[in-house]
Amino acid sequence: xxLRTSRQKLYIILIKNIIYGGIYITKESSLFNPIFLAxxxxxIPGVGYLLLGYEKKGLYFLFSYAFLWLGYKLLExxxxxxxxxxxxxxxxxxxxxxxxxYQLAENN
Length: 108
What we know:
The chain crosses the membrane at residues 9-25, 31-52, 59-75, 81-99. The chain is mainly alpha-helical. The protein has helices at 6-19, 34-43, 47-52, 55-75, 80-107. It is built from five helices and no strands.
C-alpha cells in the first residue's frame, strides 16, 4: 500500500465523516476493502479513487458524473433521446469506475 500524504489523509477523514455521519472509524483497513470501494464507486464515481489517493482521476470522474447527471435531469422532460443517452453514459461510467477501483484496491 502506498504512503499517504496529508492531503490524502484529509480526504479520507472527510469521506469517512460523510459516509459514517461524523463517526470516525479508527480501523483504516475496513475502509479500503476492495468490495466496499467498488460499491461506493458504483454509487458515486470518483470517491473510490479519492480514497485510494488518485486525486486527478477521482476528481475527473466525480465532475464528469455530476455534469452528466445534471444534463440528464435538465433534459429529462424535453429531449428524451438525449437524456436517455446521458443516463446510459452515467451508468457506463459508474460501472467502469467501480471495476477500476476494485482492481486498483486489489493491487494496492
